[in-house]
Amino acid sequence: MNPIIAILKEHNVSDAKIHELFQTLTENPLMAMGTLGQLGIPAEKLQQLLGLVMQKPALIKEAVLELGLDFSKVEAAKAKLQQ
């Protein structure tokens, strides 16, 4: 299992909420960060989670694919942020 998803499940984040989070991530990454902060994950675990994302961005792609979402939307959102 993807370590990002594992941390979320460890803190009782439902599958539906995980799917919603990554769907938001594919459409609006900045909004996803806000949503992530509202999940009630303790600060130290949230920091660990964000560290994983920053150090190993490929984990986002793995998680998106594991959840059956369209990774091309993540790439499009990333391109918009860089403009």
UniProtKB/TrEMBL annotation:
<dbReference type="Pfam" id="PF11212">
    <property type="entry name" value="DUF2999"/>
</dbReference>
<protein>
    <submittedName>
        <fullName>DUF2999 domain-containing protein</fullName>
    </submittedName>
</protein>
<dbReference type="InterPro" id="IPR021376">
    <property type="entry name" value="DUF2999"/>
</dbReference>
